[in-house]
Design goal:
The structure holds two protein chains of two kinds.
Chain A: E1 4-7, E2 11-12, E3 19-25, E4 33-38, E5 45-49, E6 53-54, E7 62-67, E8 70-75, E9 85-90, E10 97-98, E11 102-105
Parallel strand pairs in A: 2-11
Antiparallel strand pairs in A: 1-3, 3-8, 4-5, 4-9, 5-6, 7-8, 9-10, 9-11
Chain B: E1 3-7, E2 10-12, E3 18-25, E4 33-39, E5 45-51, E6 58-60, E7 68-73, E8 78-83, E9 92-100, E10 102-106, E11 110-114
The chains are: A mainly beta, B mainly beta.
Chain lengths: ~110, ~120
Amino acid sequence: EVVMTQSPTPLAASPGERAALSCRASQSVGRSLAWYQQKPGQAPRVLIYDASIRATGIPARFSGSGSGTEFTLTISSLQSEDFALYFCQQYSKWPLTFGEGTKVEI
Amino acid sequence: DGQMLESGGGLVQPGGSLRLSCSVSGFTFTAYLMTWVRQVPGKGLEWVSTIRGIDDGTYYADSVKGRFTISRDRSRRTLYLQMNSLRAEDSAVYYCVRKSGHFDLWGQGTLVAVSS
């Protein structure tokens, strides 16, 4: 099983700041990595897939990078609506696995 | 883009059974791998099971293998998850999810509580 490890958790930041969330895979997943955002009481929604492709409707302040075992989600300038929980997920190998999440909080 | 609506959650005793349903609209149901993902409220996400569109091949997490069965009814455009021998640790919100590589479309979830 590919273990996904996210850091930091939590991440304390202020509006306007840049935030970098890390996700590490226990073995290579190529670029088969997605990032999801979840707000309280809501289902997750995809932000980034294939490591760096923004999903439809996702603002340009969200960007993804990395390949293999090291990945980063960057939020260039935090907006109030970005304070939420973020998960990474690999879909290279079965079983599909998620990281434990990074909570971005004020 | 599509919608999915889960139903069937509720309170069940340990050892009991429950069948979740996910009604799909707005996209070609059989063109995608359909998946169940669960989440203990306030905790992380766990992939549970996936069914392939092309041949109904299935995949299961070890934690549910032999107890849960995923299936689909093409004519009703509905995905199912039959859950037997339920345990307290199966308590979670269960999401119906469309998989196109990543998970690109999520339902709103249905809550399953296993307790005596």
